Amino acid sequence: MAAKDPVTLLESEAKIGHIIDHQICTPTSSNASSTTFATSKASSASSLSAIKEKSLPLLITYPLPAEKLDEKKFRLLRHVVFTVYRRLFTLVIMANIIGLVFIDYRHRDFTSYIKVISSAASGNLFVAVAMRQDYIINILCEVFAATPKSTPLRIRRILTKVFEFGGVHSSAAICSTAWFVRLAINLTMNFENGTLRDIPTLALAYVLLLLFTAIVVFAHPKLRQKTHNTFERIHRFAGWTCSVVFWTLIVLTSKALSEAPGAEHSAAYILIRLPSFWLLSLNTIHGFVPWLRLRKLEATPEPLSSHALRLHLKANIADFYTIRISDSPLSEWHSFACFVDAIPRNGSTNSVVISRAGDWTSKTIANPKPFYWTRGLPTRGVLYMSLIFKSVVLVTTGSGIGPCLNLLAMDPSTRPSVRVFWSAPNPLATFGQEIIDNVYAADPNAVIWDTKQFGRPDMPAVTWQLLKESGAEAVFVISNPKVTGLVVYAMESRGVAAYGPIFDS
């Protein structure tokens, strides 16, 4: 079909398509000026004799309006530069800068300064680690998701941004590294003037600083995306090494402080009174706890196509949870939204859908294993926050339909009313009849767009159409970062509440 602007395609009248019991419609004409809407509807019959013809016009009756009339630079600052993630990031940075000014003003002597600096570094490290703990993530989500639907929409829109808590994690980690820079500089200065003559303490401070710097550098979004496996290994093994080095450092620092001129207490006395000692103890526990829940899950693979695989797991996990699975626990972990199996396979209770997106997913689809490892607690996903809205538009692409099945499978009386827009190549052939049926059971008028037949749709335009048709309160997008950012910005810049996973959620 000749290339044509997606909006023009949307505005074209659709030709009559054939519906064969939940099948995806195919166009009756290849004319570029007219196309059929890539969708299907549930048929009451269950055999080929139930073939019906039905006109499925696709007319954009609600054209995507211009962005709100605020200054463009301000709009970009609000929705692109100063996202909630970055606002939280900035808040933590500013708090630490204020703390640094206060500490430099109040503490002059070597002993007190070292204690306060190490405590500030440990405090930030504790916050960074705590914000990645499964139980803390789940508590935050449970508290915010308990917001009644009767709460004013403005408040619910703000509370839903809870999943951008990663801004606190990353900024606290950077601040911890910055405090270690300050600690290393101070130790070096005191080494040069003769106040501190402990070479091991100084050397360990620089080793620790080097490790933290490596963790922070490889966590940068672009580097993290390009070298994900390297990022994950450095985060894990450098983090463990940091814990060992840090323990050694605070013990040696306590010893050095006890031997400093004018010291009145022993190293043990100083150690147990250092906030760093207790904060590091909590961090060490946090490091061990997820691995205490290392489990092997039986998996029954169900090949959906050459591009997608459904793993049926014996996991006993409730709705709206994400699990990390791996076939090599010390190497790499991958997160997938887990949904309850409507039709158990080999005693399974839950499923995940895996689509081809990289080396690991390609390997798993080609050669699935009979078991996979999981660790820690399952964590709440972004879609869990959709429960505080009365109605939503669900936008997804490809295997993003997997997480959405949690919402779609709920009792209609307990979940928000939902409209679905799912764009994927050959949805029926790639993901199977069962998933198609699940989508239409929740939204009989769901929009399923076959990109192989019709090319890529104008995602914001179709989303806006469904939003205006349904009068929904919010839009949730489950897709790759590019599409998620495109649709979320298009909606937010027009005053609509829109949410989607961010790189660090």
UniProtKB/TrEMBL annotation:
Keyword flag rRNA-binding: no
**From what organism does this protein derive?**
Hyaloscypha variabilis (strain UAMH 11265 / GT02V1 / F) (Meliniomyces variabilis)
Q: Which UniProt keywords apply?
A: Membrane, Transmembrane, Transmembrane helix
Record protein name field: Integral membrane protein TmpA
What sections of the protein cross the membrane? Answer: 84-105, 162-181, 201-219, 240-258, 270-289
State if Zinc is listed as a keyword.
no
